[in-house]
Design brief:
single chain; alpha/beta; Rossmann fold; 2 domains; eight-stranded mixed beta sheet; 17 helices
């Protein structure tokens, strides 16, 4: 479906970070060639090519606009996507007619122009243009346009990957990720899957009281077999909306992975599940860095001490630099208020990180310990515990969705319903 930006150049907002609710699915492995007329547009396209969502696309940029594109494809096959910048109306329509004579079937064309006119838009639609974007464009505009070519705009947004990582070992990142996933599934009614990436020492199976015979290791060590049906067989059902891709948590083999070892698993999960929560172990390797940078949203879990502050700051700075078109990662404080332990106040933490924590979860070893030993979530141990609301708040921030849980019924509910009916 072709989208059309209806603002005039004066009305068009400046390129900025996408809103919290916006979810742009990554583009598949495609070839993209852009023919620009201005250095500003070329710079935006170049920045877009460095965005994580176009990480699999092969992007090539040339100057010269429409004329250069027509000349280039007289003797060469066309790529999956052609991005054309054009200033004029007649030159644009006439150039598209010439381009059609040398363009291969199936090639999609994105036009960047400066004319905001419905008649022109209709002519572009008639000629089969896939998208028309008003200049000036920012990197996120180019990313959105190319990625949307490969996802139906009317379809429900699926495949949001949420990565949860601890700023330091032992801060409870796995516990937080599992309870947040529970809130996403139960309170927001989203189908979700937890992928436990700590293959040697993962605790997701214990926390959800699951002991599946297969799990994520079977997929990682058999990348050629990974498809939707194979992943479905590996999933363990926790609730109606929540599934688990468990870690083996055994030491009978060494789990050394290449940088792209989990790519096929993540791609398959994206195509089938609306929400994927990655429980990332506290280690720094090529694949953990790739998983964090490639996620749609990130939550860093930290305890209120100096080492956690330093590590959180380092993670936030790196992720901001690596993901310039995404919103900054979120973080929460956990295990706040340990008796007799000196702590860094939340205000000081926020000042150093330059953002406020989503929540500050108090240190309550009794209920968290009981939940861990019983293989239950906090909501199953104590339905009214204050941390449950914090988990829901994190879930809402990460998914960009509001609460959909039904209000609790009371003894007066039947009478109230009768009165409303009258």
């Amino acid at each position: 479906m072709i989208s059309y930006a209806r603002q005039t150049q004066e009305e068009q907002p400046e390129a900025s970070l996408p809103p919290v609710e916006e979810h742009i699915a990554p583009a598949p492995r495609v070839s993209v060639q852009a023919f620009c007329e201005t250095v500003e547009t070329a710079a935006s396209v170049q920045s877009a090519g460095e965005d994580r969502r176009l990480g699999k696309a092969h992007l090539k940029i040339q100057m010269g606009g429409m004329a250069a594109a027509i000349e280039a494809y007289r003797s060469a096959p066309t790529p999956n996507v052609i991005v054309l910048e054009s200033d004029g109306r007649n030159d644009l329509l006439g150039g598209l007619d010439q381009l059609a004579t040398v363009c291969d079937a199936g090639t999609r064309v994105v036009v960047i122009g400066r004319i905001n006119d419905v008649t022109l838009y209709r002519e572009l639609v008639r000629r089969g243009v896939s998208d028309y974007v008003l200049a000036p464009v920012g990197a996120i505009d180019v990313v959105r346009s190319i990625c949307n070519l490969f996802s139906a705009p009317e379809a429900k947004a699926v495949g949001r990957i949420i990565a949860v990582v601890g700023a330091k070992g032992g801060v409870g990142a796995s516990t937080i990720s599992h309870n947040v996933a529970w809130a996403i599934a139960r309170d927001l009614a989203m189908d979700a899957v937890v992928a436990d990436l700590d293959l040697a020492f993962g605790t997701a199976g214990l926390d959800y009281n699951q002991d599946p015979p297969q799990g994520i290791a079977d997929a990682v060590f058999s990348p050629d077999r990974v498809d939707t049906a194979f992943i479905d067989r590996l999933l363990s059902k926790c609730t109606d909306h929540l599934s688990l891709l468990a870690a083996p948590a055994t030491l009978d083999r060494v789990y050394d992975f290449g940088t792209d070892a989990f790519d096929s698993v993540f791609d398959t999960l994206r195509s089938t599940m609306p929400c994927i929560v990655l429980d990332i172990p506290h280690q720094w390797s090529g694949w953990t860095k790739r998983a964090l940078i490639g996620a749609d949203d990130i939550l860093i879990v930290a305890a209120p001490d100096l080492a956690n502050l330093r590590n959180t700051k380092n993670l936030v700075d790196l992720l901001k630099a690596s993901r310039p078109n995404d919103r900054p990662p979120l973080y929460c404080l956990n295990q706040v208020g340990v008796p007799k332990r000196p702590e860094i106040a939340a205000a000081e933490f926020a000042k150093a990180i330059e953002s406020q924590p989503v929540v500050s979860i108090p240190f309550e070893p009794q209920i968290f310990g009981s939940a861990a030993n019983n293989g239950q979530m906090i909501a199953e141990i104590s339905a009214n515990h204050k941390s449950i609301e914090m988990f829901l708040q994190i879930a809402q921030r990460l998914t960009g969705r509001s609460e959909t849980k039904k209000q609790k019924s009371s003894l007066l509910s039947p009478l109230i319903e009768k009165l409303r009916g009258k």
